[in-house]
């Protein structure tokens, strides 16, 4: 199943043959194991001494002088070989021949006077000597020009790999992606989730992808109700739909679908009449300030989306006693080009997977929990135009273009009646999974994930963009496979279902195959929503993959006429990578085009899912060259991870990320000291193990396999058990680009200031300390294993 493991073959050395094997050391085959047990090595050396002395004492040896011994390379210990796979030049003891020459009385003891020879023998020796000199000079010339013209093995291998990748990727064309995209958005919307899945499976199979399967799960979905939710002002009696339009038959008919899909999945259902209290972004400071002024029990919070995970903010509101939430996006947080004031959106309150089977897969026979709502709050997304009506404020943007954030005056009282209607049903969610089996390491998986539209909702065209990109890469890859090529590691292509409801498809599949995935998954490459803008390439990568992403971005820049500096970070992202990052600790990478203004604004606005007409993909990328760029960048990363003998992960970057995450106003000295030891271990690991393994001359299969196992699992040390709702369990990922500290420490310090209790802070410090210590022990144990193998103890 795994990469080929080298064995340590038994070697038998007998009699005279032993000594000549020592002489002909330069003829050994490359790739032999470096290691042998020390006792065996000493015994072998003693045998050699005995055999050598026997050779010296045999009749006829008198013809050989010291010079002839040198001609047989006897003085060079680094070419000496016992034909034992476990001896390498760097670790071999000095051979018997070298030690003989180092003895001061070597010549007097072993050089005997040559017998007298006749002229015939002299001429014969002279001919042999001349022939040897000519052959020697000729060999030097051949070696010189061969070395001059031929690149080294490492360079040659790298060039061949790069050439192979380019041959595959150059077949990816923007026009093909455009055709695929248009075919996808025109697919018939059926009443279940299988129609689009069938189309994708059929297409992938026709391209030649082997073993394409369905993975179906019956899950609990929270769907839009039979009629739209509403918000009514008690003072005037005016009723509004979430988009700000009056509750009239005409408004319902004009935009019925958009109104139905403006809801919070897994919110509590019902009706609540209460005062609206503006909590701004709903962080701990906002709530602390508000609770000093007003009673928040069973009131309705007017909450802005962004800056923090929605689930975390809702948990704070729930603890503060609120009964309902009106959720909106402030126009000032959006780029000027994004006119979404009247647009409604959907959010999911599901942290991940089927709510009825938390932590275990939704397979036949599984116990189903009754969890129709995942919060006690009534949550309703509304448009910015409705907020303006509630606070009696005109348009937020002035004539000069300066944006004034929406805000409800503290002394104003607004009492509203909010009605939330949703329906909970069990439905089938389908994943499409296709495999391209690896040649040498079929049990190591690179997972490439996109997602497809669910028939239960219509939330933009990014799903078609995602599916078109992954299909373009499959097409290019299979063209090469049909010619006989195959990657070393297995590539698994996944189109996930149920993403909009909380990444349900990927979670259920991950829980279903958890044991296998924990052991075998090497990396996850996300193609979730690749085109969100057209002005800046935004790269998200695990710390261990950051160097690889930087390298690919630089190479991509060299191919483009105008290339801006790209943004690379390790931050929380939306989409199906969630399970692989937070539950499996798998190194992850994602490329996407964004608007620069959107990157400068608050984070977590992407939690909102807008309907299909929000901003069409073809307006942002009319000729689909951005799609082509994403496909090629992602494809090159996939190919390199799938084919490089040593995984292109950087252990030292993980340690550096930990040190950077501990910087702050009040650094913890204990954590800093532990992080310093982690860095030392990572530096030693990088120098002693990774550097030699990347040289083909020093590469040994069993050591490469051991090294790769360590590299693929190192981020698992940073999975913590307890985190605030909406926060990543993998603490290597920050909340956003603006914060560099560990997110759980930031929130714990905030909670400490709010509640004047250091219990949660101590828990967070303990989680971080245990993670760093685990990583340091992990690297140290890896180094010890390699040292044991080197000493021949294994």
From TrEMBL:
Spans through the membrane: 125-146
**Domain Peptidase M28, which positions?**
431-596
- The annotated region (Disordered) lies at 1-35
**Which keywords does this chain's UniProt record carry?**
Membrane, Signal-anchor, Transmembrane, Transmembrane helix
Q: Which SUPFAM superfamilies match?
A: PA domain, Transferrin receptor-like dimerisation domain, Zn-dependent exopeptidases
Locations listed in the record: Membrane
How is this protein annotated for GO cellular component?
membrane
Q: Which Pfam families match?
A: Peptidase_M28
* Residues of the signal peptide: none
Q: How does it sit in the membrane?
A: Single-pass type II membrane protein
The protein here is known as Inactive N-acetylated-alpha-linked acidic dipeptidase-like protein 2 isoform X1
Q: Which domain of life is it from?
A: Eukaryota
Q: Which family does it belong to?
A: Belongs to the peptidase M28 family. M28B subfamily.
Gene designation: LOC111148153
């Amino acid at each position: 199943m795994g990469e080929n493991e080298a064995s340590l073959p038994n070697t038998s050395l007998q009699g005279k043959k032993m000594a000549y094997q020592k002489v002909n050391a330069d003829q050994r085959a490359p790739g032999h194991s470096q290691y042998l047990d020390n006792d065996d090595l000493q015994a072998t050396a003693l045998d050699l001494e005995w055999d050598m002395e026997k050779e010296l004492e045999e009749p006829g040896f008198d013809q050989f002088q010291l010079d002839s011994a040198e001609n047989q390379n006897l003085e060079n210990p680094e070419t000496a070989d016992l034909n034992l796979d476990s001896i390498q030049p760097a670790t071999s003891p000095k051979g018997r021949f070298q030690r003989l020459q180092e003895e001061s009385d070597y010549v007097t003891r072993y050089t005997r006077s040559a017998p007298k020879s006749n002229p015939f023998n002299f001429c014969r020796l002279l001919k042999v000597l001349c022939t040897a000199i000519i052959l020697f000079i000729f060999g030097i010339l051949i070696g010189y020009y061969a070395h001059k013209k031929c690149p080294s093995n490492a360079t040659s291998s790298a060039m061949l790999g790069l050439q192979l990748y380019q041959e595959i990727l150059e077949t990816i064309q923007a026009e093909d992606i455009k055709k695929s995209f248009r075919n996808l958005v025109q697919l018939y919307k059926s009443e279940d989730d299988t129609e689009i899945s069938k189309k994708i499976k059929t297409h992938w199979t026709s391209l030649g992808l082997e073993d394409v399967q369905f993975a179906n799960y019956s899950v609990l979905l929270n769907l839009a109700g039979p009629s739209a939710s509403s918000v009514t002002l008690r003072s005037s009696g005016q009723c509004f739909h979430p988009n700000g339009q009056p509750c009239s038959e005409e408004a319902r008919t004009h935009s019925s679908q958009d109104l139905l899909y403006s809801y919070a999945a897994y919110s509590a259902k019902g009706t609540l009449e209460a005062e609206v209290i503006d909590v701004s972004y709903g962080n701990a400071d906002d709530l602390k300030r508000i609770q000093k002024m007003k009673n928040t029990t069973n009131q309705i919070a007017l909450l802005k989306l962004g800056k923090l995970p929605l689930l975390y903010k809702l948990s704070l509101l729930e603890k503060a006693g609120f009964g309902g939430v009106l959720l909106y996006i402030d126009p000032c947080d959006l780029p000027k080009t994004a006119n979404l004031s009247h647009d409604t959106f959907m959010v999911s309150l599901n942290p991940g997977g089927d709510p009825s089977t938390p932590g275990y897969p939704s397979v036949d026979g599984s116990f189903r929990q009754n969890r129709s709502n995942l919060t006690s709050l009534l949550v309703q997304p509304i448009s910015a135009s409705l907020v303006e009506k509630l606070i009696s404020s005109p348009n937020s943007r002035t004539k000069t273009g300066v944006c004034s954030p929406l805000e409800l005056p503290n002394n104003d009282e607004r009492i509203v009646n909010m009605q939330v209607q949703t329906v909970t049903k069990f439905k089938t969610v389908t994943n499409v999974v296709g495999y391209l089996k690896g040649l040498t390491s079929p049990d190591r998986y690179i997972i490439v994930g996109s997602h497809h539209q669910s028939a239960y909702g219509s939330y933009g065209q990014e799903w078609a963009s995602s599916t078109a990109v992954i299909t373009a890469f499959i097409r290019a890859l299979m063209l090469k496979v049909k010619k006989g090529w195959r990657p070393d590691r297995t590539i698994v292509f996944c189109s996930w279902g149920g993403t909009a409801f909380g990444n349900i498809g990927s979670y259920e599949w991950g829980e279903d195959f958890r044991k296998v995935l924990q052991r075998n998954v090497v990396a996850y490459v996300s193609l979730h929503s690749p085109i969100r803008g057209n002005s800046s390439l935004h790269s998200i990568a695990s710390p261990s993959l950051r160097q690889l992403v930087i390298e690919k971005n630089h190479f991509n820049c060299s191919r483009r006429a105008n290339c801006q500096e790209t943004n690379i970070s390790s931050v929380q992202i939306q989409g199906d990578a969630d399970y692989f990052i937070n539950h499996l600790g798998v190194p992850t990478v994602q490329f996407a085009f964004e608007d620069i203004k959107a990157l400068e604004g608050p984070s977590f606005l992407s939690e909102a899912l807008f309907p299909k007409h929000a901003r069409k993909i073809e307006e942002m990328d009319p000729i689909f060259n951005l799609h082509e760029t994403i496909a090629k960048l992602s494809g090159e990363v996939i190919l390199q991870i799938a084919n490089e003998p040593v995984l292109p992960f950087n252990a030292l970057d993980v340690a550096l990320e930990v040190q950077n995450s501990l910087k702050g106003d009040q650094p913890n000295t204990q954590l800093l000291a532990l992080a310093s030891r982690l860095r030392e271990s990572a530096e030693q690991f990088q120098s002693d193990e990774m550097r030699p393994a990347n040289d083909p001359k020093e590469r040994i299969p069993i050591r490469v396999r051991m090294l790769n196992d360590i590299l693929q699992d190192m981020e698992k040390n940073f999975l913590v058990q307890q985190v605030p709702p909406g926060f990543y369990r993998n603490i290597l990922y920050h909340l956003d680009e603006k914060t560099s500290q560990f997110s759980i420490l930031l929130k714990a310090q905030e909670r400490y200031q709010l509640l004047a209790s250091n219990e949660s802070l101590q828990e967070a410090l303990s989680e971080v300390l245990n993670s760093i210590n685990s990583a340091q022990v992990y690297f140290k144990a890896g180094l010890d294993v390699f040292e044991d193998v080197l000493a021949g103890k294994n």
